[in-house]
């Protein structure tokens, strides 16, 4: 998606060879018009697939998923929580994932009321690096008996293994920008096309 790649080139910051900061428009300050265009692109890619619900993980995926939901007939968005809370009542699906950016494991939890057997689910997230968060969401869907129709990613780090592994497992992964390499010395970002 050229619009997203242009924003990454213009406003992204290469912190290290594997850390890209895009908080000016994607995961701290949110550009809703960009999110809407991303949702439209995913709706085009996944056209013809039944999508009953969008599942993401807190916090950065929520805004993107909500904007995308408008392009899938305003389907509900469910987000996996990263911590147990007194507001999470009743039965839950839960698993543990490792965060590349936070460098630690954390639980991901969804109430059984909001993820059901037979539902067709689209997974949405802001970044895909090693695929740990996505595999956590996949685990939750499998526990619920939900059908994963596809995975929508804003920015994939193509030089890390997550996207290739998910595709090899048979998932339809639509990454709107795939970063092939980043140079922290020059700030140069190369994209895969």
UniProtKB/TrEMBL annotation:
Residues 44-155 form the Phosphoribosyltransferase domain. It is an enzyme of class 2 (transferase). Its EC number is 2.4.2.22. It comes from the Bacteria. It catalyses: XMP + diphosphate = xanthine + 5-phospho-alpha-D-ribose 1-diphosphate. GO terms for biological process: purine ribonucleoside salvage; xanthine metabolic process; XMP salvage. It is found in: Cytoplasm. One of its GO terms (molecular function) is xanthine phosphoribosyltransferase activity. One of its GO terms (cellular component) is cytoplasm. The keyword Cytoplasm applies. Its main location: cytoplasm. InterPro entries: PRTase-like (IPR029057), PRTase_dom (IPR000836), Pur/Pyrimidine_PRTase (IPR050118), Xanthine_PRibTrfase (IPR010079). It holds the Pfam family Pribosyltran. Xanthine binds at residues 20, 27, 157. Keywords: Cytoplasm, Glycosyltransferase, Purine salvage, Transferase. Pathway: Purine metabolism; XMP biosynthesis via salvage pathway; XMP from xanthine: step 1/1. 5-phospho-alpha-D-ribose 1-diphosphate binds at residues 129-133. CDD domains: PRTases_typeI. NCBIfam families: PRK09219.1, XPRTase. Belongs to the purine/pyrimidine phosphoribosyltransferase family. Xpt subfamily. Converts the preformed base xanthine, a product of nucleic acid breakdown, to xanthosine 5'-monophosphate (XMP), so it can be reused for RNA or DNA synthesis. Homodimer. PANTHER family: HYPOXANTHINE/GUANINE PHOSPHORIBOSYLTRANSFERASE, XANTHINE PHOSPHORIBOSYLTRANSFERASE. This is Xanthine phosphoribosyltransferase. It comes from Bifidobacterium pullorum subsp. saeculare. The gene is xpt.
